[in-house]
Amino acid sequence: MNAILQCLIHTPLIKSYFTSGLYRNHINKKKKEETLAETISEFVKEYEKVNHLVKILWKVKTAIEKFVPCFQGYDQHDAQEFLGMLIDKLNEELTTTRRTEGNSPTEDNKISIMGDLFCGELCNMITCPYCKNVNEKKENFYYLSVPLPLKVV
User: pTM value?
Assistant: First the structure.
């Protein structure tokens, strides 16, 4: 958890987004209680103040346990799992709908800084060898596992 949080707060766009308070404009209006985004913002702001670091880290851990119960306790978890969960939860909380004139909100109009920074799109195309029909499927991803070569070239 520590390594992932340090990576996020040292990402310049994430740091400025949370320290400036801009994230407040993007919090899903359905959220009435405290959000993980607010806790992460407090963490980013307090990170430089070493004397408050332990207290804010405890608050971040407590918030993560509240929003994602599988991270309760002190068991060791995979960093990639934690990153995926954190980005997914922040994306859920910070997704807003951009209204275009005369149009109703749709999936295509939804925007999120987490999606803009960390989301990619994978396009799978399958062509039938007999009828030449092409089937295309698009999937979003936050991280993509790629194999590493066994020997360095």
Answer: 0.71
- For residue range 9-40, what is the model confidence (pLDDT) as tens digits? 888 999 999 989 888 888 876 656 778 888 88
Q: What is the pLDDT of residues 123-139, one digit of tens each?
A: 999 999 999 999 999 98
Q: Considering all CA atoms of the chain, what is the largest pairwise distance in Å, rounded to the nearest integer?
A: 68
Sign for the pseudo-dihedral over CA of 88, 135, 108, 13: positive
User: How remote is the C-alpha of 9 from its chain's centroid?
Assistant: 13
Which residue type, as a one-letter code, is found at position 147? P
Q: Write the CA distances from 96 to 2, 90, 108, integer angstroms.
A: 28, 12, 11
Q: Could you write out the DSSP letters of every residue in the chain?
A: -HHHHHHHHTSHHHHHHHHTTGGGGGS-TT--S--HHHHHHHHHHHTT-GGGHHHHHHHHHHHHHHH-GGG-SS----HHHHHHHHHHHHHHHH-EEPPPTT----GGGEE-HHHHHH-EEEEEEEE-TTT--EEEEEEEES----PPPSS--
